[in-house]
Amino acid sequence: MNLNLFRKTVCNGLNYFLFFVLLFAVGRLVFLFSYGVSDIFENEKWKIVEAFIVGARFDVSAICYGFLPLVLFWLTSLFIPKKNELGFSRFYANFAHYYLLFVALVFLTLIIIDYFFYQFFQSHINLLFFGIFNDDTAAVLTSVWTDYPLFTIGLVYILVIVSWLYWSKRVKRKVVKPAQSRAKAYGLIVLLIFPLFFVGMRGSVGVFTLRREHTNISKNEFVNSLCYNALYSLKFANSERKENAIRPDIERELTSNGFASVEEVQLGYKGDSEGNLFDQDLFTKTKHSEFLQQNPPNVVFLQMESMSNHYFDLNSETLNLLGDLSEELPNLYYFKNSLSAYNGTIQTLEDFLIGTPKTIISQSVYFDTPFASSIALPFKNSGYETYFLTGASISWRNIDNMIKHQKFDVIQGKNFIQEKFPHAEEFAWGVHDGYLFDYIRETLKETKKPKFIFGLTISNHTPFEIPSYFKKKTITMSEDMKKKIRVDEKTAYANFYSHQYAASELARFIKEIRNSPLGEHTIIVASGDHNIRQVLEYTPEEGFLKRSVPILMYIPEKYKPAFFDGTVLASHKDIFPTIFNLSLSDAAYFYTGDDLFDPAVEHRFALNDYSFIADDKGAIAIENNQPYYYTWTNQEKRKLQVGDNTSSHALYLQHKMQAYTVMKTVEIYKSINQHQQKKK
Q: Which residues in 124-146 are b (16+ Cβ under 10 Å) and which e?
C-alpha cells in the first residue's frame, strides 16, 4: 500500500474540509447577528455556544456527504504505484478544485435561500419551501428581483469564489508536490479517517443519527434554530413532503368510497336506530350543568407510551408489570376492552388532538391548519388555560408547529422540565416520565384558572431505560412465559421494567393529586398510545388484544358519573367525548365517539387504525385490503374466531367503519380547505 501518498492526499483533503467548516460557521454567525435579539446574547450566551457546537455536527455531516467522491480518491491512493504518484496527484488536485467549487456554490446557495426564507417565514426551510414551486413562477421571480438584495447576494458569491480560489491554490500547491517518505505509522494512523468519516456522516456515535430533535437544546426558539443548517433543513422538509402527501379533495374522497354526498355518509354511519348524534358539521354539545359552570375541574390527559392492556392482563406477583399502579387501580375507572386509535405514537397523537383519519399532518404542508375539531377548543371556549406538555423534544415530528395552531396556550417540552428540575434524567427520547408528572403537578398549582393539560410520555420506549432513582419490583418470567416472548430475555426484561416504571410513576402522580387539595377538582385520564408489539407474538385470533390499551380515569367524588361499565367496547375516539361531558357545561365539541358513562348509547364499537372495528358480536380486520370477520369466543373479549365475511353483521361493521372514516376525513379536509382559501 502507498501509505505516503494516502497520507498526503487525505491531509490535503482535510484542508479543503476546513474551508467548508468555516463557510458554515460564518453563515451561522451572520444568521445570529442578523436575527438574534439583544436579550439572547445576555441570557442565552452559553446556549448559543452549545447551539454552535450542535450546529457544527450538522455541518460536518453535510460536508461529509459532499466529500464522498474525494473519499474514493483517498481510498484509491493506497493502491497507486510510486511511478504514477505525480499524475494521480495532479488529477486529484484538479478534480478537487473544480468539484469542491461546485459543492461550495451549492452549499452557499442553500445557505442564502435559507437565510432569506427565515427572514420571510421566521423559520428555516420547511414544507412551505416546496409550495414555491407550485406557485406563480413569474410572480416568484418578480418578488425575488424586487424584494431581495441581489447586488449584495452577488457580492457574497464573488467573495466566496475568490476565497475558494485563494484557499484552493495553497492546498493544490501542496497536493502536487511529491509525497515525502514518512514512517508507516503516520499512514496507518491516517487510516482512521474512514471510521471517523463514517461517524461524521452520522453526526453521532449514539443510537440515532442526527435528527430534528437534536436541535432542541433551549427554551428559546431562536437559539434552537441556530443548530440547523440549510442542507438539513431541506433534507427534513423533503422527507416530510414525500412521506406525508395529503390531498384534501372531498369529492374524490366521497366518490372513491361509494358515497354521493356528505349527508349520505352521515346517515350511513347513524343508521336507523342511532339518535341525533351530531349536526351537519359533526358537532354535538354537552348537557347544561349549573354545577360544572360554577365548579369547572382541571383536566389532565396522559398519552402513555406503549401502555399495554395485555400487560395489565399478564400482571401478577411474579410478573409485576404494573408496579404501584396495581394498588391504585381500585381508585380508578378502568375500561378493559379498549383499543388505541393507531399503532404509532404520532398518528395516535394527531387523532387525539384533532380526530383525523389522515396523518401525518404535522409533517405535511397543512401543519399550520387550525382544525375545527381541536380538542382544546371546547376548553378554551369554556375559559380554560390549555397546555401541551411532554418529556420529549417539543420539535419532534414538527408537533410544536402544528399544535400552536390548535388553541393550546402553552407548549413545552423537555427543556422546560430540565430548567425546573436540573437533575432530571433523560435517555434517547427525552426526559423520563416521573419528571414530566412532577412538572404537570407543579403547573396545576400555578393559577386558580381551570386548566386542561395534554401530557405526552416517552419512557416506555426502546431502548427501554429507566432512571436510577426508580426502585424496581422483581420480575421473574416463568418457563412458559419465556417460550411466548419473541425477543431475547434481556430485551423482554428491559421492556417489562420500563412498563413497570411508567405505570408506577403514573400511579404516584395520581396518588399525589388524589391526596392533595387538587384531588377534589382534578380529573386525570390516561391511555396507552398503542400496544407494545415487540415482545409478544399475536395470532389473528388475538387481533383485539394485539391492539388493546387501557383507559384509566381518576374522577373526584363531586364529578363521578352515575353509570359505569368497565367491560364496554371502547377506543380512543370515546375518551374526549367522555371528558367533555364530565367537565364542561353547554360545550360544543367535534364528534369522534360516545360518552363512556352514558347508559343510553345504543351501539358501542372500538376502532383501531381505521382498519379494525369490534363490537359485542365480533370484529372486522382489514389486512392487505381484504376484510376478515371474527366472532368472540369468550365474554372477556380477548379471543376471536374466524367468522363469515358475508354475514349481515360483517357487512354492517365494514360499512360502519367506512362511513365513520369518510365522514371524519371530510371534516378534516373542510378545515384544510378553508384555511387554504384564507391564505390566498
A: bbbbebbeeeeeeeeeeeeeeee
CA atoms of 6 and 77, how far apart (whole Å): 5
Residue with cell 371546547: 378
587 Cβ neighbours under 8 A, 6+ residues apart: 285, 286, 378, 381, 382, 580
**Residue 623 burial (CB count, 10 A):** 11
Cell numbers placing 114:
435559507
Per-residue pLDDT of 467-514, as tens digits, reads 999 999 999 999 999 998 988 899 999 999 999 999 999 999 999 999
Cβ 526 vs Cβ 338: under 8 Å = no
Q: How far apart are CA 667 and CA 374, in angstroms?
A: 12
Q: How far apart are CA 407 and CA 379, in angstroms?
A: 9
DSSP calls for 142-204 = HHHHHHS-HHHHHHHHHHHHHHHHHHHHHHHHHHTSPPPP--HHHHHHHTTHHHHHHHHHHT-
* 456 neighbors 530 (Cβ within 8 angstroms): no
Cα(395)–Cα(629) distance, integer angstroms: 40
User: Is the separation of the CB atoms in 595 and 581 below 8 Å?
Assistant: yes
Q: Which residue has the cell 420539535?
A: 395
Report helix, strand or coil for 454.
strand
CB atoms within 10 A of CB 671: 20
- pTM for the model: 0.81
Q: Are 550 and 568 within 8 A, CB to CB?
A: no
135 has a pLDDT exceeding 50: no
- Sequence letter at residue 174: K
State whether residue 459 is helix, strand or coil. Answer: coil
CB 659 within 8 A of CB 268: yes
What is the residue type of 499? Answer: H
**CA dist., res. 74 & res. 415, Å (int):** 42
Axis-axis angle for helices 648-679, 262-270 (nearest 10) = 140
Residue 486 CA from chain centroid, whole number = 27
Residue type, position 398, single letter: N
Q: Which residue has the cell 374522497?
A: 253
> Are 430 and 390 spatial neighbours (Cβ–Cβ below 8 Å)?
yes
Alpha-carbon dihedral of residues 232, 233, 238, 243, nearest 10 degrees?
A: 90
CB-based contact 362:388 (threshold 8 Å)? no
Could you tell me if 418 and 431 are in contact, meaning their C-beta atoms sit under 8 angstroms apart?
yes
Q: At what angle do helices 85-121 and 150-175 cross, to 10 degrees?
A: 160
Q: Are strands 410-412 and 333-335 parallel, antiparallel or unpaired?
A: unpaired
What's the rounded Cα separation, in Å, for the pair 628 and 539?
13
* Ordered alpha helix ranges (H), 36-84: 38-43, 45-66, 68-77
606 sits in which H/E element: strand 606-608
What pLDDT is stored for residue 76 in this prediction? 87
CA distance 351 to 376: 13
pLDDT tens figures, 198-215: 888 887 766 667 777 777
Q: Helix, strand, or coil here: 578? A: helix
Neighbour-count burial of 303, counting CB atoms closer than 10 A to its CB (0-12 exposed, 13-18 middle, 19+ buried): buried
Give residues with Cβ within 8 angstroms of 605, minimum separation 6: 569, 571, 613, 614, 615, 653, 656
Reference 581, options 565, 566, 592; nearest CA is 592
